[in-house]
Amino acid sequence: MRSVLICYNPYTMMSTKIGTESAVTAKGRAAKERIYAASIRLVNAKGYEALTVPAICAEAGVSIGAFYHHFDSKGDILLRYIREESDALLEFYRRLEDLPRREAILRSVECFFGFFAVKGRAFVAAFLGIIFQSGGSYYDPRGFSIVAILDDALARGAASGEFHGSGDHILGLARGVILDLMVSWCVVADSAVVADSAVVDTAADGLVSAGRERMSLLLDLLRY
C-alpha cells in the first residue's frame, strides 16, 4: 500500500460535526466512536440484517439511551460514519494543492478506497444496499466528497491543460469507476475465503491498488 495511506487511520480521521454536535463532550465522543467500531465488528461478523440496537449497545458497552442520543437507527450509524469520513477525505484533498491534479485524484481515490477496505465487504455491501434500496431518498451518493473532488480536479486539470476534456460525461465516467469497483469488490467476495484475516488484508490492499489503477487508465485517456 502506498505511503499516502500510512497516515490514514479510519478511526481518527473523523471530523467533528457542526451545530449541536460540535460541543459533544469527550465522554460522549468516546461513546460514539465505540458505537461505530462495535457496529462495524457486528456487521462483518453477522451481517447487516442481523444487526440490532441492543446488540450494538452490548458490544459497545453503552446504554440504549446513549445510542439514541447520537443516532436515530442502525442505518443512521453507517450513513453518519460515511459523512464524517467524507468530510475527512475532502480535507485530505485540500492538502494536495501543490500536486498535479492527476496525482491529487489518484491519492484521493487511494484514501477513499482505503477507508472502505479496512471496514470490510459486509460494511460496504450494507452501505450500498441502503443507498440502492432508498433510491437516493435517504442518502444521495452524489454527497460523497470523492465526487466533489473528482469534479474539482477534473475541471481544474482541463483548465490548466493537464487534461484534454472535462464536463459531466467525464465526471460520470470517473464516478462509474468508483461505484463499479465498490460493487464488484462486494459481489465477488467468498465468505469462506475472507474469513482468513491474512486474505482480508491482501484483498484490502488489492482494492486500493485496483482503485488507483483503474482511475489511472481513465485519466491517461484524458491526456491525449
CATH class of the largest domain: Mainly Alpha
Which fold name is given in CATH as the topology of the largest domain?
A: Tetracycline Repressor, domain 2
Overall domain count = 2
Major sheet characteristics: none
Note the run of SSEs as H and E: HHHHHHHHHH
Residue stretches low in confidence (pLDDT < 50, at least 5 long) are: 1-23, 190-202
Strand content of the residues, in percent? under 5%
Q: What form results from the Cα inertia axes?
A: elongated
- Rg over CA atoms, rounded to whole Å, is 18 Å
Which secondary-structure class do the elements indicate?
A: mainly alpha
Q: What oligomeric state do these chains adopt?
A: single chain
β-strand number: 0
Number of helices: 10
Amount of helix: 55-70%
Q: Which second-level CATH architecture of the largest domain applies?
A: Orthogonal Bundle
Cα-to-Cα separation, first versus last residue: 29 Å
- Average pLDDT over all residues: 76
Account of the protein in words:
- With 224 residues, the protein is an all-alpha fold.
- It folds into 2 domains: 16-71, Homeodomain-like (Arc Repressor Mutant, subunit A); 84-224, Tetracycline Repressor, domain 2.
- The protein is 69% helix and 0% strand.
- It has 10 helices and no strands.
- Helix 4 (74-94) runs antiparallel to helix 5 and helix 8 (168-187) runs antiparallel to helix 10 (197-221).
- The longest helix is centred in the C-terminal third of the chain and has 25 residues, at 197-221.
- The protein starts with 25 loop residues before the first helix and ends with a helix.
- Residues 1-23 and 190-202 have low confidence and may be disordered.
